[in-house]
From TrEMBL:
Coiled coil: none annotated. PROSITE patterns: 4FE4S_WBL (PS51674). Its cofactor is [4Fe-4S] cluster. This is WhiB family transcriptional regulator. Keywords: 4Fe-4S, Disulfide bond, DNA-binding, Iron, Iron-sulfur, Metal-binding, Transcription, Transcription regulation. It comes from the Bacteria. InterPro entries: 4FE4S_WBL, Whib.
Length: 106
Protein backbone atom coordinates (compact mmCIF):
# COMPACT_ATOMS: atom_id res chain seq x y z
CA UNK A 1 0.00 0.00 0.00
CA UNK A 2 1.28 3.47 -0.84
CA UNK A 3 2.01 5.69 2.14
CA UNK A 4 -0.14 8.81 2.25
CA UNK A 5 1.51 12.09 3.18
CA UNK A 6 0.13 15.30 4.61
CA UNK A 7 0.48 17.37 1.47
CA UNK A 8 0.08 21.10 2.11
CA UNK A 9 -0.85 21.55 -1.55
CA UNK A 10 -4.10 19.76 -0.77
CA UNK A 11 -5.05 22.17 2.00
CA UNK A 12 -4.93 25.64 0.42
CA UNK A 13 -7.63 27.28 2.48
CA UNK A 14 -6.07 26.28 5.76
CA UNK A 15 -3.86 29.36 5.44
CA UNK A 16 -6.33 31.72 3.80
CA UNK A 17 -7.70 32.44 0.36
CA UNK A 18 -5.10 33.37 -2.21
CA UNK A 19 -2.10 32.62 0.00
CA UNK A 20 0.63 30.10 -0.66
CA UNK A 21 -0.75 26.69 0.39
CA UNK A 22 1.45 25.75 3.31
CA UNK A 23 0.82 24.98 6.92
CA UNK A 24 2.65 26.96 9.59
CA UNK A 25 5.30 25.14 11.61
CA UNK A 26 3.21 25.76 14.73
CA UNK A 27 0.66 23.17 13.60
CA UNK A 28 1.44 19.97 15.55
CA UNK A 29 1.40 17.74 12.46
CA UNK A 30 4.13 19.91 10.90
CA UNK A 31 6.40 20.02 13.95
CA UNK A 32 9.98 18.77 13.74
CA UNK A 33 10.21 15.14 14.68
CA UNK A 34 6.58 14.31 13.81
CA UNK A 35 6.40 11.57 11.21
CA UNK A 36 3.54 12.25 8.73
CA UNK A 37 2.97 8.49 8.54
CA UNK A 38 1.64 8.73 12.10
CA UNK A 39 -1.53 10.25 10.64
CA UNK A 40 -2.05 7.25 8.37
CA UNK A 41 -1.84 4.25 10.71
CA UNK A 42 -2.62 0.91 9.09
CA UNK A 43 -4.37 -0.67 12.06
CA UNK A 44 -2.22 0.41 14.98
CA UNK A 45 -4.51 1.72 17.73
CA UNK A 46 -1.60 3.29 19.63
CA UNK A 47 -0.39 5.20 16.57
CA UNK A 48 -3.95 6.35 15.86
CA UNK A 49 -4.34 7.53 19.46
CA UNK A 50 -1.05 9.48 19.23
CA UNK A 51 -2.15 11.18 16.01
CA UNK A 52 -5.55 12.08 17.46
CA UNK A 53 -3.88 13.47 20.57
CA UNK A 54 -1.77 15.82 18.43
CA UNK A 55 -4.92 17.12 16.73
CA UNK A 56 -6.71 18.02 19.94
CA UNK A 57 -5.91 21.58 20.89
CA UNK A 58 -4.55 22.40 17.43
CA UNK A 59 -5.62 25.83 16.24
CA UNK A 60 -6.21 24.44 12.73
CA UNK A 61 -8.28 21.44 13.80
CA UNK A 62 -11.63 22.88 12.72
CA UNK A 63 -10.32 24.02 9.33
CA UNK A 64 -8.58 20.70 8.78
CA UNK A 65 -11.79 18.82 9.57
CA UNK A 66 -13.78 21.10 7.27
CA UNK A 67 -11.30 20.39 4.48
CA UNK A 68 -11.57 16.65 5.11
CA UNK A 69 -15.37 16.74 5.07
CA UNK A 70 -15.43 18.87 1.92
CA UNK A 71 -12.89 16.70 0.08
CA UNK A 72 -13.59 13.03 0.80
CA UNK A 73 -11.76 11.94 -2.35
CA UNK A 74 -8.52 13.46 -0.98
CA UNK A 75 -8.99 12.44 2.65
CA UNK A 76 -10.21 8.87 2.29
CA UNK A 77 -7.60 7.60 4.77
CA UNK A 78 -5.89 8.88 7.84
CA UNK A 79 -6.49 11.29 10.66
CA UNK A 80 -7.77 14.71 9.60
CA UNK A 81 -9.05 17.36 11.98
CA UNK A 82 -8.99 14.96 14.89
CA UNK A 83 -11.20 12.37 13.20
CA UNK A 84 -10.79 8.95 11.67
CA UNK A 85 -12.11 8.05 8.22
CA UNK A 86 -15.14 6.17 9.64
CA UNK A 87 -15.99 9.14 11.88
CA UNK A 88 -15.82 11.56 8.94
CA UNK A 89 -18.03 9.25 6.91
CA UNK A 90 -20.56 9.24 9.76
CA UNK A 91 -20.40 13.04 10.07
CA UNK A 92 -21.04 13.44 6.33
CA UNK A 93 -24.05 11.17 6.65
CA UNK A 94 -25.36 12.80 9.85
CA UNK A 95 -25.10 16.31 8.41
CA UNK A 96 -26.14 15.37 4.88
CA UNK A 97 -22.78 16.36 3.47
CA UNK A 98 -22.68 13.40 1.11
CA UNK A 99 -24.87 15.28 -1.35
CA UNK A 100 -22.80 18.46 -1.10
CA UNK A 101 -19.24 17.59 -2.16
CA UNK A 102 -16.65 20.30 -2.68
CA UNK A 103 -18.51 23.00 -0.77
CA UNK A 104 -16.70 26.30 -0.64
CA UNK A 105 -15.01 27.13 2.66
CA UNK A 106 -16.67 29.86 4.66
Amino acid sequence: MTTKQLDPAHVPYLVGHGQQPRLPATVPCQSDGVDPDMFFPESDADAQAQALALCFGCTFQERCLRYALDNPQLTEWGIWGGTTAPRRQQLRKDFDLVTQPNRKAA
